Structures are given as C-alpha cells and as structure tokens.
Amino acid sequence: MGRAGRIARGIMVLGSVLLLASCGDSFNDAYCEANNHRNQLTVEHLTHVLEQKRNQPGLYLARARCHYFLGAYTQALQDASEVIRRLPNKADAYLLRAKAGKMLGQIPQALQDYSAAIKFQPTVEAYYGRGLTYLREYPGKDREALEDFTAAIRLDPKHVGAHAFRAQIYSRHEQFQNALADSEQVLKLDSATPNAYCNVGFAHYALGHDAEGRKFLTTCYQKDPDT
C-alpha cells in the first residue's frame, strides 16, 4: 500500500474512533477483530483520542478488545479494569477481563469475572468460558462445568465446543447415552471437529453397540491415521 493509501486508511480509522467517542458506549466493540490487520492502527488512534477524552469508558473497552486480539493481555486487562471502575455493571468489560486474565494465568480472578459477566448479562461466550475454566483448571468441578456448557447450549444449540466438552464430561462419569447424543450432535454440526467420528465410536462401544462403534472408529482412523 502506498503512502496515500496509508493516510486514507488512517483517516478512516480515526474517523471511526471519533464517531465512537461522540456516541459513547453504543459502538464500544466495533473496531478490532481477530486477525484484523488494522488492529494495531486502531489501538494507536484510540490511544490518541483517549488522551483528549479520558471520560469515555467505551473507548477504553474498545482499546481493551484491540489489545486482547493483539495478544497484549496485560494492557487489555488494565483497560477492562478501568471500564469496570467506571461502570461496575458492564458485562462486556468483565468478560474481556476474564479472557485476558485467563491468558495471564490469573485463574481465580478470571473465574470471578466470568461469573460477574453472567450475572449482568448471560451470554454463550461467558458460560462457555467459565465452563472451560472449571473443566481445565479445577479438578472436581465437572458438575459446574456441565451446567455451564448446558447453559451455553440452551442459548446456542449449535455451539460445537459446548457439545464436545459436555460429551467429554458425560463419558468421564459413564453417562454414555448422553455422551453419544452430544458426540453425534458435534458430528452433525461440524464433521471436521478433531476426533468427532472417534468420539461417536467410543460412545457406541461403551453402550455395547460394537458394530456401530467399529464403523465410526474405522472412519475416524481413515480420516486421521495418527488419531
């Protein structure tokens, strides 16, 4: 991209940021997305505007989101905390701080923040994030993880991850019929999910359905011999 193009892009991003500042919180998460090549530029312009308008929580939340997608988790956590200080009921800020804190290894605080996000605005992402935290970080919290994955599925019946991890918990507790139902749902929603065919096959075997188990496991090994 030439110099003129870079200038035009900068003007466009700055214009969007100024619109954000004038509109308060209504566009607070509209600018940075995963793998967006403009994220760094957006951070720079948000920082510039915040030097002039420090009373805009929406700008801090937008910048926190940008920092998160750039892998700057400490800065994301700091900006999300600033939003929470100003707006203690802001669910989006708790959710973002939970995600950043989890990446930084601050697991107990992340769990509290997921819970706060759910309290103020229950979302699929918040339930799923808390469920994963219970499952991966807290041995013995399978029941809590199961409840969160179920809540996520209730809000989004097509959430592949929630079905997959709920099936894992069911299998661990020998509830194989439930594990089979979730594993089949994963296969239906996204057959490319790792081990999708294998998980259905193992559940069939556990239920004594040997022929079905062999069929799905054979398909699994054909698709991925290293499984």
TrEMBL record:
TPR repeats lie at residues 91-124. Gene3D superfamilies: Tetratricopeptide repeat domain. Keywords: Repeat, TPR repeat. It comes from the Bacteria. This is Uncharacterized protein.
